[in-house]
Write a structure and sequence with these properties.
Layout: E1 11-16, H1 22-31, E2 35-40, H2 45-50, E3 55-58, E4 84-87, H3 89-97, E5 101-103, E6 109-117, E7 130-137, E8 140-143, E9 149-153, E10 161-164, E11 169-172, H4 184-195, H5 204-219, E12 223-227, H6 232-245, E13 249-255, H7 263-274, E14 278-283, H8 285-292, H9 298-323, E15 330-334, H10 339-342, H11 352-355, H12 365-369, E16 372-374, H13 382-391, H14 396-399, H15 419-438, E17 447-461, E18 464-477, E19 485-486, H16 491-504, E20 508-513
Parallel strand pairs: 1-2, 1-3, 3-4, 4-11, 12-13, 12-15, 13-14, 15-16, 18-20
Antiparallel strand pairs: 5-8, 6-7, 6-9, 9-10, 10-11, 17-18, 18-19
Helix pairs in contact: 5-6, 5-13, 6-13, 8-9, 15-16
The structure holds xanthosine-5'-monophosphate.
Xanthosine-5'-monophosphate is lined by residues 359-361, 403, 405-407, 447, 481, 518, 522-524.
């Protein structure tokens, strides 16, 4: 059942047929300052109507319209009177349903191509007659459906763009949403503004205002707890909720003893001192390290840390409730869930996007604690979360901070996690961060950190032979953490980091640079 999003302004709906680019389409529309919502391909027409959308986009997808299990639309959507843009598979599906002909071709047309625009149409308004485009399709339309005309062609296809201007139905065989179609954004803008008549009312200012009102309504006089990790999502959620409900929000910051240098201090400074958020700081270092004693297996480490977090958090909420003078009821748990976690993924065999898993974040909290959820960021993409954070006055050091795994330094210490090994890794990591920042590289990469290996090697220091630990540097670039490559950092910078670590961190005599990409390696070492 499709959920009707609460946003009151202009909105477009994207029906997802399993394309790896569906979320890219949604983001392109949001960049036009118009709200977009992704729904399953088989969402009934009457539900689509209820969303109040001003237009529908049919995404691409890996299937062939004639295949037995091909995802189909509710044909009634073509009678809603709404503009429709079909992209790739979406265009073929529309053609197929409206009386055109689609032919299966064994050879996929994949890669760059040139589009020749024949007829002016709203979709190509203010665009040149010849455009670079990106193709990725097997089947193609070979006969136009009734009412349609060809608007643009490529060398391989007379129907690369088609339109039924009267019904406002458009089809594109190529992908306007990808960066390889350089003027694609303008094609999408034309559909959004000219064809659908959307207004630019999706701004982070309007989002903040509307979300605050909704949260106040949802929460009433109750109290909300939020596990603040210092990461971007929980930090922005905290700042937003604090704006909405002030002291009805209490943040719990658990120091699991596996944090980076200064992390606890930064969170306390920003949220406690600057924002005056009610902040409960729990130092659970001993609890976590006791549980981790002698554990070297990565999966066991992760499980232990996840479970212990739930217990510590639960204890903290119980304590808060007991202590609270006016017996505040903590009935709500806030989480920094984002839109990509919410989208119901369409799993169609052969589609790599369907296999991509979302990451192992702390789950299980609400189920165990019987708390209702508040998820103020569930409509947002990551870049939008950052904009909201900046508008709410959070500093760059939080808004643009690199991702940090929930199990923290434990998965960057291969082998046993002890206080001494934590000290070594923390000191080495602090040098990596400070040199990356000083050289302006920190914000240009996805992640940059140190890993402590379970390897000792021989060295010399002065006249002495040493037998000490090895640090690996992991510095990667990535768009979303799903794939990554090592960064070609200048040798001088690598040299400086290495020298400083070996000179300043007691217990290290060797530094290596990890030059593996993901896949087949992962970003973290455990
Ligand atoms: P991998 O190591 O799987 O990491 O290539 C991909 C991205 O996910 C981050 N990561 C985590 N994030 N909880 C998180 O919130 C975790 O348990 C976790 N493990 C890995 C990792 O830092 C990288 O950005």
């Amino acid at each position: 059942m499709a959920k009707t999003d609460a946003f009151h302004g202009s909105k477009l709906v994207i029906l997802d047929f399993g394309s790896q680019y569906t979320q890219v389409i949604a983001r392109r529309i949001r960049e036009c300052q118009v709200y977009s919502q992704i729904l399953r391909y088989d969402t009934p027409a009457r539900e689509l109507k209820q969303t109040g959308a001003r237009g529908i986009i049919l995404s691409g997808g890996p299937a062939s319209v004639y295949a037995k299990n091909a995802p189909q639309v509710d044909r009634e959507i073509f009678k809603l009177g709404l503009p429709i843009l079909g992209i790739c598979y979406g265009m073929q599906l529309m053609g197929f349903h409206l009386g055109g002909k689609v032919e299966h071709s064994e050879r996929r047309e994949y890669g760059a191509g040139m589009l020749h625009v024949k007829n002016s149409s709203d979709l190509f308004r203010n665009l040149p007659k010849h455009l670079d485009i990106w193709n990725s399709h097997g089947d193609k339309l070979t006969k136009l459906p009734r009412g349609f005309a060809a608007v643009a062609q490529t060398d391989n296809s007379p129907f690369a763009a088609i339109a039924d201007v009267k019904r406002k139905f458009y089809g594109l065989q190529f992908h306007p949403e990808v960066a390889h179609t350089p003027r694609g954004k303008e094609i999408i803008q034309n559909f959004v503004y000219e064809v659908c008549g959307c207004k630019m009312d999706w701004t982070m200012g309007s989002f903040i205002e509307q979300t605050c009102a909704e949260v106040r309504e949802q929460v009433g006089d109750d109290h909300v707890v939020l596990g603040l990790s210092g990461g971007v999502d929980s930090s922005v959620a905290a700042a937003l909720l604090h704006k909405a409900i002030g002291d009805q929000l209490t943040c719990i910051f658990v120091n699991n003893g596996l944090l980076r240098s200064k992390e606890a201090e930064v969170v306390q400074r920003v949220f406690g001192e600057n924002f005056h958020v009610k902040l409960k700081y729990v130092d659970a270092t001993t609890r976590f390290l006791t549980k981790l004693k002698g554990v070297a297996d990565p999966e066991r480490k992760r499980k232990i840390i996840g479970n212990e977090f739930i217990r510590v958090f639960d204890d903290a909420v119980t304590e808060l409730t007991k202590k609270s003078k006016n017996s505040a009821r903590f009935n709500f748990l806030a989480q920094g869930t984002l839109y990509p976690d919410v989208i119901e993924s369409v799993s169609i065999s052969g589609n790599p996007a369907a296999l991509i898993k979302s990451h192992h974040n702390v789950g299980g909290l609400p189920k165990k604690m019987k708390l209702k959820l508040v998820e103020p960021l569930r409509q947002l993409f990551k870049d939008e979360v950052r904009q909201v954070g900046l508008q709410l006055g959070l500093p760059n050091e939080i808004v643009y901070r690199q991702p940090f795994p929930g199990p923290g330094l434990a998965v960057r210490i291969l082998g046993d996690v002890t206080r001494e090994r934590l000290r070594i890794l923390r000191d080495a990591d602090a040098i990596v961060v400070s040199e990356m920042k000083a050289s302006d590289w920190y914000y240009r990469v996805w992640q940059s950190f140190a890993v402590l290996l379970p390897v000792r090697s021989v060295g010399v220091m002065g006249d002495e032979r040493t037998y000490e630990n090895t640090i690996a540097l992991r510095i990667v670039e990535s768009q979303d953490g799903m794939t990554a490559d090592w960064v070609r950092l200048p040798y001088e910078l690598l040299g400086k980091i290495s020298t400083r670590i070996i000179n300043e961190v007691k217990g290290v005599n060797r530094v290596c640079y990890d030059i593996s990409s993901k896949p087949p390696a992962t970003i973290e070492w455990e």
